[in-house]
Structures are given as structure tokens and as C-alpha cells.
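ok, trying the design again with the full structure, not the truncated one.
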């Protein structure tokens, strides 16, 4: 087994991936889950076009395993898997996106309409080096007889060797760095932290994200004492509310989603749910609160809509999507058309953003005008709260 060097022009590129591109270290989990989702999507697509490949959609899932003693996090999937050559090409070449290639190759296939490949740049995997000093990837391609293990400690290169694996799919094992005075890497070994990150970034990945959870339950044999029980739990919601048809959603579903998502205790005055197709294709779910936020008129208040791309959260507050006079509007936008920067943490300023912002502005105005015409009393209540903005 011989150590190989990355196929980038300079090791500085990988160093940049690890240390400069991403603002928040916690992003690594979002990226690994997105990769696992892409691999699962590819298997499902292949099963539609190749009779020799079987994929039961109900059995497809992503799994996270934590091992505090050995300081490891495992993210595994039962997706399409990779051969030794694909491990070399996809992980040995920085900025080589197998998902983007897949998207281009199948752009004209009708079966691919429901396949929402997330990866674009081929750098997300390397974000794991922000929290791990060693990464192992064990993968078995669907239909293959052997599995292979890719291993690396970062810029000094990687190795690929044959190994054992019973079924197709990929297991990524991160060996976490030791804690320092400024960095707490051990937090990623805590159940609550993983739950929090999945809910924040990957709640609407279409496949179940499963993790073994522990909880204290009463001991049936000893009164007053407790035992630890372990059970697999699904951490993500999977189906975004905004992707459902409006006629399938009850008012209380809209209201509960709003109160949970935006930490309000009152029902909103108005719900605006729209799907736009054309120059830009996106789903938007927006709310006009009934009560102004406590910090609304302070310098600390930040306007903006949550931004999703294919169900994966990119930004918590995208100010470019709302004009100042509608800064009170809460909600989100989900679009596959967004031109994101390489870290997928921020938007590139481009024509698509302006188109979406203009459409949102027009939609909010039309819904307010409709309220004024059809429910004057409700509109006057709204205007009393937010009329100063207008």
C-alpha cells in the first residue's frame, strides 16, 4: 500500500478548503449528510433505469453513529457506493464533483426529474478535516464484489486499499481532533449537538437520518431506580411543509410551523405560500407576524428570509431577499437555481437573486392589497403594528 498525493496543483488548495472557505466548523455535518443523500439519490435513479439494480425506497437511509471512547463520528448510507477508481477520482481530486457530473449526464432523462442532487463543487467532503485529524471512507459500489478503504490525515496524501464490507454504500469515519483552549471538538460527540445540527441544516433531506439515542427510563425490577435504554430515532422531518400542496395543509399546520420555526407564541396575521416557476423557480413560505419582535426597532434587529437550496439550509437570514419596508416578514425561500459561493454559506450577487427578490416583493404587496380589500379590520390591525415601516 503506497501513499498517494492529492491531484491538485498545490497542497495549498486543500489547506484552503480546511482553514479558509467555511465560516463555521459545524458545517461539516451538513456536507457529509448532503453527500450521503446524493449517493442514495443516485442509487434510486439507477434502479429506475437498470433492472439489475434493486432499491427499496423505504429501506434507504442515512445513519450517524457516535463513539465517545474512540472519539469517532460515523456517517453511513446504503446508496450507490464507490469503486477504488471512483474513490481516487472523487476524493483524491479536490474540487471534482461526482454529483455535478451525474447531474449533467442525466439532465435530459425524465426519470431524473425527482432527483435532487445537492453537491456542486466537490469540496464539501474536505470540510470534515476542520474537526477531524483523520478520515476513513469505506465504500462498496453497487454490484461490486469488493470494497475499498480511502484513508487520509490531510495534506500529506491518502491511501486506497481493499477491505471487507457486506453491502453497497459508504461509511465515513471521522477521528476527531483533541480539544484545545479555543475549540471544543468533543461537543460533536454529544447526541443533543448532532440533533441540533441535523434540525438546523438537514431537516428536510428526503431520506431518514437515523441515530441511536439513549434515555433514562424507570427500572421495571427496582422501584425508584432508572436504567438506560437505547433506541434508533429518526432525527429529520424529511418532507418540507412548503413543498406540499396548499390544499393539503391545515391552517393550524401553518401556524404551528411558524411558531416553532420563528420562536413566536402568537399565530401570524397572514400566511403567504407560493410556488414560482419561470425565470427563477422557487418555493416560498412567508408570514406576517401579529406582534412586532421585541428588538424590531433596535439596531440589533436583522431582516431576512431563511434560504434553502434543495431542502438544505444555506443561510439563516438572507437580507437580499427582502426590502427594508418588508423587514418584518418572516419565512423562507427554497430554490435549486441559486448561485451559491463555494462554501454554500453565502450567495453570489447575481441576476437570479434579484429576480427572486422582485417576485417576493410583488407577492407580499398583492397579498396585503387583498387583505385590505377583503378584511379591512385585520389590515388595520396589521397597519397599526407595522405601518411605520410602510
Amino acid at each position: 500500500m503506497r501513499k498517494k498525493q492529492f491531484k491538485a496543483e498545490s497542497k495549498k488548495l486543500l489547506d484552503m478548503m480546511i482553514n479558509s472557505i467555511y465560516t463555521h466548523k459545524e458545517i461539516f455535518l451538513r456536507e457529509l449528510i448532503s453527500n450521503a443523500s446524493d449517493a442514495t439519490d443516485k442509487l434510486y435513479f439507477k434502479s429506475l433505469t437498470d433492472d439489475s439494480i434493486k432499491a427499496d425506497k423505504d429501506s434507504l437511509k442515512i445513519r450517524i453513529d457516535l463513539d465517545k471512547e474512540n472519539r469517532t463520528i460515523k456517517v453511513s448510507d446504503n446508496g450507490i457506493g464507490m469503486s477504488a477508481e471512483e474513490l481516487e477520482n472523487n476524493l483524491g481530486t479536490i474540487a471534482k464533483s461526482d454529483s455535478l457530473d451525474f447531474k449533467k449526464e442525466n439532465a435530459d432523462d425524465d426519470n431524473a426529474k425527482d432527483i435532487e442532487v445537492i453537491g456542486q463543487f466537490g469540496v464539501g467532503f474536505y470540510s470534515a478535516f476542520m474537526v477531524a485529524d483523520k478520515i476513513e471512507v469505506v465504500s462498496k459500489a453497487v454490484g461490486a464484489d469488493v470494497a475499498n478503504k480511502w484513508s487520509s490525515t490531510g495534506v500529506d496524501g491518502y491511501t486506497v486499499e481493499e477491505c471487507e464490507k457486506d453491502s453497497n454504500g459508504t461509511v465515513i469515519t471521522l477521528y476527531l481532533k483533541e480539544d484545545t483552549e479555543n475549540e471544543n471538538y468533543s461537543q460533536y460527540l454529544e447526541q443533543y449537538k448532532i440533533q441540533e445540527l441535523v434540525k438546523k441544516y438537514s431537516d428536510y433531506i428526503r431520506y431518514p437520518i437515523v441515530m441511536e439515542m439513549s434515555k433514562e427510563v424507570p427500572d421495571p425490577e427496582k422501584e425508584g431506580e432508572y436504567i438506560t435504554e437505547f433506541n434508533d430515532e429518526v432525527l429529520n422531518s424529511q418532507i418540507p411543509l412548503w413543498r406540499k400542496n396548499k390544499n393539503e395543509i391545515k391552517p393550524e399546520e401553518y401556524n404551528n410551523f411558524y411558531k416553532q420555526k420563528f420562536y413566536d407564541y402568537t399565530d401570524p396575521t397572514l400566511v403567504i405560500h407560493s410556488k414560482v416557476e419561470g425565470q427563477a423557480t422557487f418555493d416560498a413560505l412567508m408570514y406576517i407576524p401579529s406582534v412586532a419582535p421585541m428588538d424590531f426597532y433596535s439596531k440589533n434587529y436583522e431582516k431576512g428570509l431563511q434560504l434553502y437550496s434543495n431542502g438544505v439550509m444555506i443561510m439563516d437570514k438572507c437580507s437580499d431577499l427582502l426590502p427594508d419596508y418588508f423587514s418584518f416578514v418572516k419565512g423562507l425561500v427554497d430554490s435549486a437555481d441559486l448561485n451559491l459561493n463555494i462554501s454554500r454559506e453565502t450567495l453570489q450577487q447575481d441576476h437570479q437573486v434579484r429576480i427572486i427578490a422582485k417576485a417576493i416583493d410583488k407577492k407580499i404587496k398583492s397579498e396585503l392589497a387583498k387583505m385590505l380589500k377583503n378584511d379591512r379590520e385585520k389590515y388595520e390591525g396589521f397597519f397599526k403594528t407595522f405601518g411605520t415601516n410602510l
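Keeping the full-length input from now on. The chain has eight helices and 13 strands.
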